[in-house]
Amino acid sequence: MSESNARKRLLGPDDARDAPGAELEAPERIVDPQDTLEDEVYGASLRPRTFEDYVGQETVVENLRISIDAARRRGEPLEHVLFYGPPGLGKTTLAGLIARALGANFRPTSGPTLEKPKDLVGILTALEEGDVFFVDEIHRLGRVVEEFLYPAMEDFQIDFIVDRGAYAKTLKLPLKRFTLVGATTRAGMLTAPLRERFGIVHHLDYYAPEELERILRRSAGVLGVPIDDEGATTIARRSRGTPRIANRLLRRVRDFAEVRAAGHITAEVAAEALQREGVDELGLDRLDRAFLRTIVEQYRGGPVGIGAIAATLTEDAETLEDVVEPYLLKQGFVTRTASGRRATPEAYRHLGVAVRASVQERLL
Ligand code: ADP
């Protein structure tokens, strides 16, 4: 038997596909928290329209509502708000809810689309008093654009330099007082001057399974799909603490349920549908398992740098850091040390691989 066949036998047919370096079958990841395309096409109706529909993140919501009430009472615009946390946790949704609660317009854009100051000028000068200007992925703003934003945020004006050399003059263009809501998955990548210009900063964290169940029940109601409690629990557990993923898994399970189970979502139907998608009982997909297997099999449990893992998997290191690793860290499958990533005994257990004696010693 060839070595690769031996490995296949050892790992089982499904796991062989998760092996490091193996072709990852699905080009798109059903558990990708950054993939907003499906959201836009099918998910619009699932986005909460009021704070009452927004599940979880209670402290953030409560504090925001107080800030909004106070601003309204004073007849002033709300201070600039920064949300940070992993993708798909409801930052854009919250920004929209703020605008609604303020009775203001919502103007969404994103950092990478604002390439030049002139892109920004057009938007800023069109803002009305109190409008919410939302900048997603604000850490990806270009430096020049970012510096242009400082006086806009601080003094509600923009500075133009006209002419050159000895004739150069700065013209100040006043703006209406607006509220900038920024969202980022990487607060650490924001420059200090930008961060300091936000009066309100909130961190969004992963959702508890019970919260995801509530979101799923609400979404199933909106979609008109019958789901029982165990069905919701089964999907919630595999949703990686992320509402966007919960809703996407729900749509896939619904398709399966319609074809195979008269449309009704039970625990069995959900489990079978998601297993077919390569999503295991903890919400890990092939890429997650390949990430863990790389550390365990190729690098003897670590420590190994993210660049080496990325090269083995032929994936982008930043993507791995943003969308794969956070959940594995959160689940306790990986630890980050100064010398690199290490797999924990839980990772070995989850993969069904015996912990190597040397690793065991090190972990004790
Ligand atoms: P982010 O901006 O953090 O990437 P979004 O605000 O776009 O995330 O949320 C993704 C999707 O998840 C939304 O379309 C919405 O359907 C759902 N969602 C997010 N947060 C919540 C929540 N707290 N309650 C209910 N649904 C939510």
Q: Under CATH, the topology of the largest domain is which?
A: Rossmann fold
How many alpha or pi helices?
17
What is the total tally of β strands?
A: 9
Report the CATH superfamily of the largest domain: P-loop containing nucleotide triphosphate hydrolases
Structure in words:
- The chain has helices spanning 3-11, 13-18, 37-42, 58-74, 91-102, 117-126, 143-155, 192-196, 209-223, 229-237, 243-260, 267-276, 286-298, 306-313, 317-330, 345-351, 357-363, and strands at 81-84, 106-110, 132-136, 157-162, 169-174, 179-184, 200-203, 334-337, 340-343.
- Mean pLDDT is 87; it is low at 1-17 and 21-26.
- α6 (117-126) links the parallel β2 (106-110) and β3 (132-136).
- The chain has a 5-stranded parallel beta sheet with strand order 2-3-6-1-7, covered by helices on one side. Strands 4-5 form a two-stranded antiparallel sheet. Strands 8-9 form a two-stranded antiparallel ribbon.
- The chain has 3 domains: 3-27 and 285-363, Arc Repressor Mutant, subunit A; 57-203, Rossmann fold; 207-276, Helicase, Ruva Protein, domain 3 (Orthogonal Bundle).
- It is α/β, with parallel strands linked by helices and 364 residues long.
- Helix content is 49%, strand content 12%.
- Adenosine-5'-diphosphate is lined by residues 39, 43, 46-48, 54-57, 87-93, 183, 215, 243-244, 247.
- Adenosine-5'-diphosphate binds at residues 39, 43, 46-48, 54-57, 87-93, 183, 215, 243-244, 247.
